Amino acid sequence: MLDRFDLALLNLVQADDSQTADRLAARVALSPSAIARRLRRLRADGWIARTIALLSDRLTGQRLRAVVSIELAEHADHKGKSGLEERLRATAQIQFCYETTGECDLLVLFDCANMAEFNTLCDTVLTADPTVRRYETSFVKREVKFAPFVELT
After folding, report:
1. Domain 57-139's class?
2. CATH topology (fold) of 4-44
3. What is the pTM for the complete model shown?
4. In the chain, % of residues over pLDDT 70
């Protein structure tokens, strides 16, 4: 079970995982060695799934990003849907895929170098799949907010 110290550490490392145990100790009432032990345990126990680096807009600002709403065929079977999901997971240019309720079944974010790459991916991953009834694309003009943070209390 997670205690208040674990929750405080998880909140801090979500914002910046590069902080040292000494720096974290200034904000959480534990010694640096206790913080290091807790972080190792939180990772080992799967509370921290992975640590990633978020790239600057200087590297990603010129890329083509598209939010694609996918509607599955009315009679899409489990095998077809599983196959599509597997291809979506295996496509590096797809940054997220959520199964949703409402008008679309899946919501996907593509991040491509250019329109040609996006069109090729749509043709190979979506258009060629009979499980996909239709898809609708909205291109990202600019990022207004990106905050992958869950405040734990």
Report:
1. alpha beta
2. Arc Repressor Mutant, subunit A (1.10.10)
3. 0.85
4. 100
